[in-house]
Amino acid sequence: MTIYRNYINGQWIESASSKTAENINPANTDDVLGTIKQATREEARSAVEAASEAFRDWRMTPAPTRGRIVARAARLLEDEKEALAQLLTREEGKTIAESRGELQRSINVTEFCAGEARRLNGETIQSELPSNFAYTIKQPLGVVACVTPWNFPVAIPIWKIAPALVAGNTVVFKPASLTPATAVRIVEIFEEAGIPKGVLNLIIGSGSEAGDEIISHRAVRAVSFTGSNDVGIRMYEQVSRRGAKVQCEMGGKNPVVVLEDADLDLAVESTAQGAFGSSGQRCTATSRAVVVNDVADEFVSRIVKRAESMRIGDGSKAETEMGPSVDESQFKTVLDYIGIGREDGAELKCGGERATGDGLDKGYFVRPTVFDRVTIDMRIAREEIFGPVLSVLRVKDFDEAMQVANDSDYGLSSSIFSNDAARIFRFVDEIETGMTHINSPTTGGEAHIPFGGIKATGIGDREQGSTALDFYTELKVVYVDYTGRKREGNLY
Ligand code: NAP
Ligand code: MG
């Protein structure tokens, strides 16, 4: 049985811990991939110390040289794409098509970041004074902790690690406990790409012990976190208190707005993809459909039909459209929320239960679920469920749709289905989300386009795209005076 090891200062080291957990395939709980040994606080500390030691040389390594290592990692990821996609499906449960998509996104991000290594430029600025000018340089921060969730266990770590390294930081990577196998492969790829010892370290351990030790360490100058709001907000408080940088990408409750002039086929198919794709376990998943009364009956009847036709199963089978929830706890959470929706008086139109039979009994499968006549005060309309559950909220017109869509603590993604340019652009102006889509699902994004949310979803700089390196660099301003004379008058 595989035992996942930590990677500290260029060495793969088995944890001395006696706390273990099994890595289980959520589509078939008889399939055990390996054993986790939860890293101790001491091991977590030694990873930070190794990263701190390695920083001196890495920051002096020219950025294009750092970029070349990241470019090599991109090529290795490309070679490993299929094997890693299979592993991802077995470990996390998403369909093989979704895993291949995640791998392609990871390759794209790595390529993009490698290119950024040749564009780590500052600016030169004219002075008010003769024979004076100023310029800016972008410098790395030091040791950066990357703390990541299980739902995109390849892409999210890579979209943090690659820019952090290109910028000249050293990294301690703490993946989610549920997805150690993919985490190990990512680090092996960077190792093979030639990352110097100590520059990238991996700690497999629980958030509350190893994770806490890493983010609390004085040498960690920045923490990039993606995950739940409870954990993220606590982390923000804890880390910002010592003046270190924090970036948190957290939950979502993403709405689609469907207007009376929408192409309903497109709206239904896109909503189904957004709501049930990855079993609803995307931060950008569609969880609210805000539909105007004129088309609501038709929309509901078509989305229910689509939900019922969804082929559920082991993600490794080509025909599967939707896999399981990631583990027992997530599975129970989803079923609990379905119970809450019923009690609160929402109309259950389909799903609402565990999927069984046809080999599904050994996995954590929930049938795609649609609730109709959900009102904005209900918990299923307000809280992130992270399962294949869609709430339909009926509204009288566009104005009410805007109000309901924005009545959320979260602000990650959204979309609108309409062909009326005036209302589409009013939606773009007024919707309170960091990303919005027109006539397409709430999910999806590209490697060279910034990603992130507002309100309770996001704290700090946007990840990826033109803003990918902002979080991982400090701007230093340099004033140059080549007059050789004492300055006259006052300067502020
Ligand atoms: P989570 O429970 O918050 O965990 C995220 C990471 O934080 C894991 O590595 C976890 O370790 C670690 N952690 C937990 N407590 C910690 C502590 N006290 N100190 C340091 N680290 C700690 O989230 P999840 O269940 O893995 O992921 C699902 C959530 O991620 C959803 O809310 C989803 O919306 C969000 N998400 C957001 C985005 C976005 O970009 N906005 C993208 C994807 C997912 P353990 O695994 O060991 O607990
Ligand atoms: Mg697993």
Shape descriptor reads globular
Strand order in the largest sheet: 14-15-16-13-12-18-19
Q: Spans with pLDDT under 50 lasting ≥5 residues?
A: none
Major β-sheet profile: 7 strands, mixed
Q: Roughly what percent helix?
A: 25-40%
Radius of gyration: 24 Å
User: What is the strand content?
Assistant: 15-25%
CATH topology of the largest domain: Aldehyde Dehydrogenase, Chain A, domain 1
Annotated CATH homologous superfamily of the largest domain: Aldehyde Dehydrogenase, Chain A, domain 1
Number of helices: 14
Cα separation of the termini: 66 Å
Query: How many independent structural domains?
Result: 2
Top-tier CATH class of the largest domain: Alpha Beta
**Quaternary organisation:** single chain
Question: Helix/strand-derived class?
Answer: alpha/beta
The hetero molecules present are: NADP nicotinamide-adenine-dinucleotide phosphate, magnesium ion
Number of strands: 22
pLDDT averaged over residues: 97
Describe the structure.
The chain has 492 residues and is an alpha/beta fold. The protein folds into two domains: 2-250 and 457-477, Aldehyde Dehydrogenase, Chain A, domain 1; 254-438, Aldehyde Dehydrogenase, Chain A, domain 2. 38% of the residues lie in helices and 21% in strands. The chain contains 14 helices and 22 strands. It has helices at 41-60, 63-79, 81-92, 96-116, 155-166, 180-192, 207-216, 229-240, 264-276, 293-309, 328-343, 379-382, 398-406, 421-430, and strands at residues 6-8, 11-13, 20-24, 32-37, 124-126, 132-140, 143-147, 170-174, 200-202, 220-226, 245-249, 254-258, 286-292, 347-350, 369-372, 389-395, 410-411, 415-417, 437-438, 454-455, 458-459, 473-481. The chain has a seven-stranded mixed sheet with strand order 14-15-16-13-12-18-19, with helices on both faces. The protein has a six-stranded mixed sheet with strand order 9-8-7-10-11-21, with helices on both faces. α2 (63-79) runs antiparallel to α4 and α9 crosses α10. It is globular. It starts with 5 loop residues before the first strand and ends in an 11-residue tail after the last strand. The mean pLDDT is 97. The protein binds NADP nicotinamide-adenine-dinucleotide phosphate (NAP) and magnesium ion. NADP nicotinamide-adenine-dinucleotide phosphate binds next to α7 and α8. The site of NADP nicotinamide-adenine-dinucleotide phosphate (NAP) has 31 residues, from α7 and α8.
